[in-house]
Amino acid sequence: MCLLQLLISICTLGAAWQLSRVISDVFLNGISLNAAAADMGMLLFLLLIKALLQYPLKRPLCVFSSELQFQIRQKLHRSLAVQTVPDNKLQLLAVETTEALDKLSTAILPQILSLAVLMPLFLLTIAFIDWQSALIMLVTLPIAPILLALIGHKTKAAALEQWEKLGTLTAAFKDMLAGIITLKLFRQEVAQGERLSENSRDFSAASMNVLQLAFVSSFTLELITTLTIAILAVSIGLRLLYGEMSFSIAFFMLLLLPEFYRPLRQGGIAFHAAAEVHTAWKTLQNTIETGRSDLRRGARDELRVPPDISVHELSFTYPEAPLPTLQDISARFPANKVTCICGTSGAGKTTLLKVLAGLLSPQQGSVLFSGKKLADMAEESRQKLISYIPQAPHIFQGTLGENISLFDCGKKENIAEKINGALKSAGLSLSPDTSIGEGGQGLSNGQLHRLGLARAFYQDKPVVLLDEPTAGLEPAEEKELLNTLNDFSRHRTVIVISHREAVRKWADTEIAIEAGAAVPAGEVRHE
Fold this sequence. Notes:
Rossmann fold; ABC transporter transmembrane region fold; 4-stranded antiparallel beta sheet; 64% helix
């Protein structure tokens, strides 16, 4: 890219020189347009080459931006395996925050290239022609960075406040949409709408603060560069008037001066884009690095596969909840068996499954896999060991195959074979190339559950945790799916939450959860 920027800068120099020659020859020396046709042709040729070189310069930047956003979203996705991120925060991180990094390639890197290549080349060229003008340019250059540095601290704080207000607005809007029916029933939609309007005004005020700082810095840079160009133009004009400089050289320098200061004039935009990118990057890193540290933490001891799982005096309370969801639970989930967790709604079954998956950390008690604490295991070991399929699996925008493999980057042949096998086992009669998610084909409730099962079949791990896997299926479909799961569950530790009688009869062991307690712990219902 530096080479392309150098070629573009050389073309700009050549075009400015050819234009100054044409103007001087035609209007001062009286040369006819026909005689100046060669110079005019060269001028057009250089302008055409400069325009054509812009595409291969911008394309790598666009590819870089696209790949960077894809990698960031992959890292965010991997971090979800080791930490729970609220939906509104995840959406903000995956969309607005990640897309803010696009300014790195559209506003920042092009200006860095111009500062690193174009400005030194133009400065050397002008120094070779007129050292006095080059000295003035060299002296005025540091003024702009100094002023930007003074504005920088306040810009950073304003950008951070803008992201915080956007996060608050996103969360409030999502909560309002999720509870719109309840709000209507209790006639609170007007009050909630006013609260949302207030959040929107706060975000608008924060955005205007950032724009004001951007305007001030841009105005300052424009003023400095305009005054500098005016000083140089007066100096060049006086020397031209007293015959110390030829017209073609003077005109050539006047053509170069706006181009030389253009990166500085646009530096204000690049500076504020850099502040926004820095804030977005730090926000993303806080989530990603937390996931990385959890991935590195823990032991990597050998474990008997499949393991038997047990919990001892387990208690868990959600933040700001008045009562514990789970309290003093002790239970055992034997290896090579299917254990069904049943109980009333709200008793904590899904919470217990998330604790077993390592997605939630209990305040008291422990989870043991073949006698080894789950909390002491490295997250890499957990990921190789456990498949957790929630009641409503998340659908990513992409193909059905990508949603099953969760964007696995292994060998394409093996992935395609595993995806087809998972689709067949789950009874999902759709092509792997079917587009789903936003803008794609919608899935029914039953198909959504089958998608979750297909992910479990694809992952093929020794511990499988399923939350209501047959919900929404007809009895005949449920029976067929349980037959498939019967083969799949061999040599695995399977824990399933279900209210369905067929699933409870199919399981080897049943544990009832009532009011946060296991009753009775590890009772074997079927053998």
